[in-house]
């Protein structure tokens, strides 16, 4: 499993979720976390629906999305 140094909770595994970026090696993609954040206005409700997510997971997903908008991070920055 590879992790992006600045984003320790964001991982990628070739055989998991089609090699897409996931949160902490789980089968939930960064994209899905962003979609969840866009859907749930109330974080208490979000955490009831997705109890395995943590506040830091949400923050790193948002920060990663923002960084990729400016091309500040990419797959070439992945390390073992």
Written description of the protein model:
Helices cover about 40% and strands about 15% of the residues. By secondary structure, the chain is α+β, with helices and mostly antiparallel strands. It has one domain (about 1-70): Orthogonal Bundle (Arc Repressor Mutant, subunit A), CATH 1.10.10. It has a three-stranded antiparallel beta sheet. A hairpin with a 2-residue loop joins strand 1 (about 1-5) and strand 2 (about 5-10). The longest helix is centred in the last third of the chain and has 15 residues, at about 55-70. The N and C termini lie close together (about 5 Å).
Q: How many separate structural domains? A: 1
Helix share, percent:
40-55%
Write down how many β-strands occur, each being a DSSP E stretch of 2 or more residues.
3
Q: Give the overall average pLDDT.
A: 86
Q: Which overall shape is indicated by the principal axes computed on the Cα atoms?
A: globular
User: Could you give the order of the helices and strands?
Assistant: EEEHHH
- How many alpha or pi helices? 3
Strand proportion: 5-15%
Distance between the termini: 7 Å
Q: Name the CATH class.
A: Mainly Alpha
Assign the CATH architecture: Orthogonal Bundle
CATH topology: Arc Repressor Mutant, subunit A
């Amino acid at each position: 499993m590879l992790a992006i140094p600045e984003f320790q909770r964001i991982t990628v595994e070739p055989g998991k979720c089609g090699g897409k970026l996931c949160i902490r090696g789980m089968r939930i993609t960064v994209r899905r976390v962003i979609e969840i954040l866009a859907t749930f206005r109330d974080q208490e409700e979000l955490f009831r629906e997705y109890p395995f997510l943590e506040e830091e997971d949400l923050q790193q997903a948002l920060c990663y999305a923002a960084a990729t908008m400016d091309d500040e991070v990419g797959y070439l920055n992945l390390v073992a």
